[in-house]
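Handout, section 4.2: multi-component inputs.
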Amino acid sequence: MIICTNKMEYPLRTQCQRVQKQVMVNGEKERVSLLFMKALVSTGSVDAVSQQMASHPQYLESFLRTQHYILHMDGPLPLPYRHYIAIMAAARHHCNYLVYLHSAQFLRVGGDPLWLQGLEAAPPRLRLLDHINKVLAHQPWLTACSHIQTLLKSGEQCWSLAELVQAVVILAHCHSLCSFVFGCDTDSDFVPLSKSPNGTPPTFCPFDAANGNTNVPQSLATPSEHKTRRRSLDSSCDIVCLKERIQKSQEEREKREERLLQTQTLQQTDMEEEEEMICFADPTRFITDPDFCYQEFARREEDHFQVFRVQDYSWEDHGFSLVNRLYSDIGHLLDDRFRSVTTLPSLHSPDLKRAIWNYIHCVLGIRYDDYDYGEVNQLLERDLKLYIKAVACFPDATKTPVCPLSWAPLKTSERIHVNLLIMEARLQAELLYALRAITQYMIA
Amino acid sequence: MEKMSRVTTALSSSGVSGRTMFCHLDAPANAISVCRDATQVVVAGRNIFKIYALEEEQFVEKLNLRVGRKPSLNFSCADVMWHQMEENLLATAATNGAVVTWNLGKPSRNKQDQLFTEHKRTVNKVCFHPTEVYMLLSGSQDGFMKCFDLRKKESVSTFSGQSESVRDVQFSMKDYFTFAASFENGNVQLWDIRRPDRYERMFTAHTGPVFCCDWHPDDRGWLATGGRDKMVKVWDMTTNRAKEIYCVQTIASVARVKWRPERKFHLATCSMMVDHNIYVWDVRRPFIPFATFEEHKDVTTGIVWRHQHDPHFLLSGSKDSTLYQHMFKDATRPVDKANPEGLCFGLFGDLAFAAKESLISSDANRKPYPGGDRRYPIFFFKKPDPTEQFAHVSSALSVFETDLDSNRMDWFVKTAQLYLLSGKPFAELCDHNAKVARELKRPQVSTTWTMLKIMFSDPANLTTPGANHNLSKLGSLPLMNSFSMKEMGSGMGTESRLERSKGESRQDNIHLEPGNSHISNNNEENEETEGSEGQAEYMFGDAELDDDDLYSMEHDNQAEEQEYTLPQEAFQLRHEIMDNPSAPEHLQQDKADSPHVSGNEAEVTCLTPIESFSLISISQPLFSPHLPASFFCPIVREMLSYYAEQGDVQMAVSVLIVLGDRIRKEIDDLTQEHWYMSYIDLLQRFELWNVSNEVIKLSTCSAITCLNQTSTTLHINCSNCKRPMSNKGWICDRCHQCASVCAVCHHVVKGLFVWCQGCSHGGHLEHIMNWLKSSAHCPAGCGHLCEYT
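Output:
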């Protein structure tokens, strides 16, 4: 007789259902607010990224589902590990926003605050991931069977295949999300804030971003959006219990934060306060070899790097089966994302979408036999190509992307659509390289 | 060519012969195909396009079709097919979207014949018509299928799959005009080659892409499909709706499926990922492959039976750059290695075990399950089917039935129904529950209840002279208590119990002892108390009577007092119950809280007598008879955790509720909530709604009590137009009538509306209550005898 129901989830779920019930689902707006509500109820936050994606609710749904699955649901990796991997991934692209977000979540799920001091403080198992993180982020074509072998080599710090696959999925997800964050300029909101006035600690702590009931998102979201969300929340008077929980977890976290800050201070008592904050904000602590970055694939073609032929290793035929076997159900979720991003209603023609997609894969060394790459040049103007390449290959928070001139008349949602395409294409590219390496390892 | 055809005739006359053999290719293969007379095989891949002759002992390379210094992508083949009528004709599907035909009869080195570049995306499949020489069909990633007449320069018809990628196309073997196409979204479509405007039939065969399909070579209605969902399905297409007749679950996505010639139920499959083997299945035996070929080191990409009428040769190409000829006689038979043994738990705890008959019978010691013969008829022995070449294994099945009483969940249901959790004084509740447990033959639980009673109602006992006497007597014989208990304690204890509950079988006697000893190792104090019960047998009986008297008296007193001393605690959370028409519940509620209070109060009031007592009887140093209730709390907490861990969360929750404040603070909220949730979940599974509701009501966790506030929505229909009312309860949007009118005052009811479930008339709660006090009939005058309780 098994009688253990999940104690934490139960009340939340009923709350959630009730909240849902109260929202009348008609039309896109409600769909979005419903999704936000769900996110709010389940994680206590609606981050800026989701708010950006809100213009494409159909996609947002599958995105949130995937993200929730890989970060919070069943999987071989412990929760703090997952967020730490996400931090490592985001740090590769200096994405402060994601580093903060996941640092907060890392602490919330009970991660050791010491780890946040940098990669050296993390367990050796996570440090082993650094190399594949670096390669996948910047030159995924370098991913080789030998990397996988090193990680899986039996020993005290070895990874299991299932863990590795989940780690790779998280890495790829976060790398590509960095592109989106960069493309949508979400990150720039954070930079001035986190490096704010010397001496006084910033009034806004980035950790609050993960917190539903602070007023932080107001600075990120358009006010109207935010207001609707608030109202719909308040109208449901039943969620007192939920609010209490959030409150409680917030208090706990604040305590932890304090502890963290204390350790920080202890570690760096001799440093000036300002420096300390900046240091705390500096994501390079989570990576090594910060100079490693994207290099033109084409230029390297003369070397022995072979072009990756999609016809020989495709997501639909190969990647899906492998990833789904080693990390159940993730295949379907990712499949859903890839499908929904290409079928999103948009002003862009299917040809243009395909050109963007194939162009990104092309700069990452993946070729389609059945595509005439001349089309890319016809359909994508030079500045758009530059933009795509910048977002896909150099998403660096310290710069702002130069938007192509032709974008001026476009609606925000169309721009976001392009960014989504870039993100998904990059995600798939990284996954393909990583999964092919794993396949090769399994055969060998 | 001349020479080759001569060889061919020689072979076909003597039947095909050969052995398992392989040859290295220069590059991974994507597909293979044989010519009609089974003497040659073509291998195609990204970097390979060659023809090999199949000789007795080896493969011999005949021809390399990949010519030119820098071959174009047209040579990069996703699929290849050798025409089954015209032995010089080949077709390939190129990864760049081209469909190419090759004529081996050409004198030049480049055998390329025609090039069709109509597809925009990779062509996944080409297929020649089985009887028509010039008809070629292609299916592409761009979602189109095209039919080519090889005498013309372009396609003659295009079939649209509605933008879904086509993974496979196959002409029907028997129906001249029909072909099947499988799609990436899981659908399979049937087309008539003469009608390119729309498909004849479509059905969803798999979840996820259908990578392959194959028509049965003999049975015209059968189509086998294989998909990414790791299934092979056989469809009967002769009926109106495609019917799935067989389904084989493999361990990896199915890349190719090919019916085995001359064997109606056999088909071969290979996978696209992870699994490198080729399996031959008997579709009637879907759980274990009939034969396996395990030679390849990387995924198998192409399989083909060498000859249309010979089931013994299978050719395969692989990503590991080898080409194999497999002999069926060399195949691995997984059945031989399989352990024909099975073990399964039944719903009610029965255990079934099947094993080879030989194993079972050789074991003389093992007795088959009782009355086994009775059950044999339910197994029918399959008639050995000569076409089914599976080794037949006959197994013996043993069913080990568990003692029904011990493993059935009846006790849970009964216990849940019979337990009293509130409404009586604490000691009575304990007694009642102990009795319930005892009657259900759960002595340990029963004893636990009794002990709880003793532990937590001590102070109350002390106030009566009887109890005093009892205890002092116990105190004088402390050593003997613990000693005598083992000898006679249990027996006498039972006797005293028998007095109280007649008709108990002697069975209890046996149960009691292990129960006692079991618990006693938890806690020595308990043991002594327990022992005392048996020791002072007649005394105890008396004392108990006193107990009851005392309690009922005390309860009365307390209940009155309680009305004004502790109302907030009792009602704060459930204020709406005041309005609730179900009065009995209300009353019960009152009572429910009273024992808690009385218990507490009793403790406080009795404090002085206890102290004085202990001062007087200071000459009894061995154990103090008045251990405060809180003394037991850690033990009780342990006990509760023990029960919960044992899976008896019912006990944990029941004790928690009955003990109330005595123990609540000892256990952290989360654990309590967890127990409550589990118990409520169980109760709801057994559909014990009343009990579950009672538990919810009695619980003190806010997270639990708020469960009762969920799904409190009532959907009502308008009484005039009988349609659902959407927003407001009293006015209908559609007929603009006031729907809920009070039958007494004829005003609209806003707020609480009470109605009769018999005649559905009703009105204001107050009005109806008043009305039914004076009259038995419905106020609406319908003549129904309404009742308000």
